[in-house]
Amino acid sequence: MNLQDDLRQRLTRKPVLLMTHLVLGYPSLAVNHEVIRQMAENGVDCIELQIPFSEPMADGPVILKANQEALAAGIKVRDCLAFAAEMVREFPQVNFLFMTYYNVVFRFGLEEFIRQAAETGMKGFIIPDLPPEEGSEYLRLAKEQDLAAIMFFTPTSTDARMREVASQGGGFIYCVARKGVTGQHTEVDDSLAAYLSRCRKATELPLAVGFGIASREDVAMLEGRADMAVIGTATIKLVDREGAAAVGPFIRSLAES
Amino acid sequence: MKKGYFGQWGGAFIPEVLHQTFAELNAAYEAARADASFWQEYVDLMANYSGRPTPLTFAENLSNQLGGARIYIKREDLNHTGAHKANNVMGQGLLVRRMGKKRVIAETGAGQHGVATATMAARFGFACTIYMGEEDVARQRPNVFWMEKLGATVVPVKDGSRTLKDAINEAFRDWVASMDTTHYVLGTACGPHPFPEMVAWFQSIIGQEARRQILEQRGAMPDRVYACVGGGSNAMGIFQGFLDQPEVELIGVEAGGKGLDTGKHASRMLSDRAAAGVAQGYKTKFLQDSDGQMLDTHSISAGLDYVGISPILADLGEKGRVRFEAATDDEVLAALQLTMKTEGIIPALESAHAFAQAIKEAPQMSREQAIIINMSGRGDKDIFTIAHAFNDPSWKEFIVRRAEEYRGK
Ligand SMILES: Cc1ncc(COP(=O)(O)O)c(C=O)c1O
After folding, report:
1. For residue A18, which of A1, A38, A39 has the smallest C-alpha distance?
2. Residues of chain A whose C-beta is under 8 A from some C-beta in B?
3. Do the bridges between strand B70-75 and strand B56-58 make them parallel or antiparallel, or are there none, so unpaired?
4. How far apart are alpha carbons B7 and B168 in whole angstroms?
5. What are A73-99's pLDDT values in tens digits?
6. Same fold for the domain at B5-47+84-195 and the one at B52-82+204-388?
7. What digits encode the pLDDT tens for the residues A83-142?
């Protein structure tokens, strides 16, 4: 089943889905494995596996540092692909997506990257520095494999731009809650609500939104406004602070009502 | 061809959050470019404020000493703030004023672009933040001092290799949050469209002047034109004056560092460690590993210490219109010394790369031939690096004494 259909089915059972994120190789693949197990066993719907890049232009200090340390520890793209394949096999209940910057994919070979991702059962890609104008080949190849090329909405997107971008992507739309890099908290206020309602009007695709989500209340705020809460920097900080074992209880606390 | 592409190079690989900002920037740039009064305003400003046109100096002593081609030097060192960087910056400043923004940010390597941007911001009344790699902050202290005195905030960047590319990433991180009020004054002919084309356009004033001047002085085109290549803005600036003259050979000189075979260099056009890639918003040849991770670069000159190259130059190189060479740190210091002693001119370490290559080639040319060296900037800013490289005893003594004096207080 493709990502969009799978998410639609999940949404008949719960009001807001969860997507989490981690940087492969930070602090190590072994810790990544344990973190993913904790996430999977506590009902996470999607996990972004970020393949590290030396120039993560759209990321804030926490994820930037994780990228650099993973690379310094020697992680390679082929390790990331092999590890992802293993995770897909072990946790079939989770949708796994690759998040990375375009150079990693370009250098690996776009066609080969997408072919291998499809073969291993990945569900899609999030590539923040590849806008649809530059990504026609990427979009075509992803579609061919029925993989989701995740597109972005941002508060600066016009309605027309939202419709245009949505028509090119698949899976869900990643709604950036505010301007700026990853890892900053945004208040859930009227302007966020108005923005999300603008997003909703522009597409039939499920809406994922992240804004430094850290509590059950944050997730509950999204009910009726969006379809999936994205938890990024919070889990990286948690693992730094308390270790992988803290992830399960944290995810459970987000999902419990 | 797709807009913003030069052969297979260029493009605009920008995060979605900047889509609207780039749409507005493109519109402002295209409107300015179509408006002859904008260029006139720019030329007038550069004349009044920046001392343009800069001279084309016949280097008689150096020519005689080398005994080959007649050497002319285009004197961007005499431009306000001491380098060609001011051309681009003042041009973008006029554009920022048209767009109604109130704050500018910039990356800087050598600090020349940072000083130029801080100067422009002071003149136009903009707030200004400069991002600079920590390593460059350490080796270009005098420029940091001036930026701060000019009213800019200088942010040392501690990530990655702590040089120019990291400063560019950090400037983008600022911009994705601040674009409503802020313009990013990119300092070289790199980055997403329209920057390569726009920066090259502002810098084309160098080539326009140089072409007119060489025709006046010599009555003929030069045989060769040399420029150092960091991101590629001074090279594009002067080359544009001669691109339509196929008999004029154009030579771009990259940082050979400690030698191309050592890995400690910044040569994107000659090294086998460079490959096509996409980073910092554009597609060009980057020094990178087989996984697409950017490599650390090395150069004695902060301004050439960069992993990418202008997509326009990547294309001109690929098509054979520009020949690329590399000069090592040692060759650069020797060229610097020779130029100072024979002509009383102190080139910036970046510019000294162009001198080094010209000095290698001029003796093989005939007395009837002529070359132009683009002297992109003056060397005063490099006094700490140059004095250190020459291991100058009296300078060391001065620094030690001054340090003791400060410590004593
Ligand atoms: C004096 C001088 N020359 C050359 C450069 C290299 O830049 P570009 O290749 O864009 O001219 C710099 C950059 O800082 C510089 O300060």
Report:
1. A39
2. 53-58, 60, 64-65, 68, 71, 76-77, 101-104, 106-108, 128-131, 133-134, 151-158, 161, 165, 176, 179-181
3. antiparallel
4. 24
5. 999 999 999 999 999 999 999 999 999
6. yes
7. 999 999 999 999 999 999 999 999 999 999 999 999 999 999 999 999 999 999 999 999
Q: Which residues constitute the domain of residue A199? A: 3-255
Domain boundaries defined on chain B? 5-47+84-195, 52-82+204-388
Fold for the domain defined by B52-82+204-388: Rossmann fold (3.40.50)
Q: How many domains does chain A have?
A: 1
Q: What are the tokens at B304? A: 């050439």
**B379 touches ligand 1 (CB under 6 Å):** no
**How far does B173 lie from chain A, in Å, by closest CA?**
6
CATH 3.40.50.1100 for the B5-47+84-195 domain, yes or no: yes
pLDDT tens column, B114-139: 999 999 999 999 999 999 999 889 87
DSSP letters, A48-72, are EEEPP-S--TT--HHHHHHHHHHHH
Give CA–CA dist A103/B374, Å, rounded. 33
Amino acid, single-letter form, for residue B187: G
| Residue A137 a catalytic site member | no
Q: Does the predicted interface ipTM exceed a cut of 0.90?
A: yes
Cα–Cα distance for residue pair B48/A173, rounded to 1 Å = 52
* Residue A194, token pair as written in the block: 């108005």
Contact B14 A157 (CB under 8 A): no
Quote the CA–CA distance of B304 and B83 in Å, as a whole number.
14
Q: Is A59 a catalytic residue?
A: yes
Instruction: Residue A67: give its domain's CATH number.
Output: 3.20.20.70
Cβ pair B239, B207 in contact under 8 A: yes
Strand pairing of B282-287 and B153-157? unpaired
**Structure tokens belonging to residue B216:** 């006046």
Check residue B162 and give left, alpha or beta (phi > 0: left; psi -120 to 50: alpha): left
Question: What's the DSSP call for residue A181?
Answer: -
Kindly state if the Cβ of B91 falls inside 6 Å of ligand 1.
Answer: no
Cis peptide before A27 (omega within 30 of 0): yes
Is residue B18 a contact partner of residue B176, using CB atoms and an 8 Å limit? yes
Separation between Cα atoms, residue B377 and residue A43, nearest integer Å: 60
Rounded to the nearest angstrom, the distance between the alpha carbon of B182 and the centre of ligand 1 is 24
Tell me: the pLDDT tens digits for B324-383?
999 999 999 999 999 999 999 999 999 999 999 999 999 999 999 999 999 999 998 788
Ligand 1 atom with minimal separation from the B232 CA: 9
On the question of a cis peptide bond just before residue B55, with omega within 30 degrees of 0, the verdict is no
Q: What is the residue-wise DSSP string for B352-380?
A: HHHHHHHHHHGGGS-TT-EEEEEE-BBSG
Nearest one of A40, A144, A146, A154 to A94, comparing CA atoms: A40
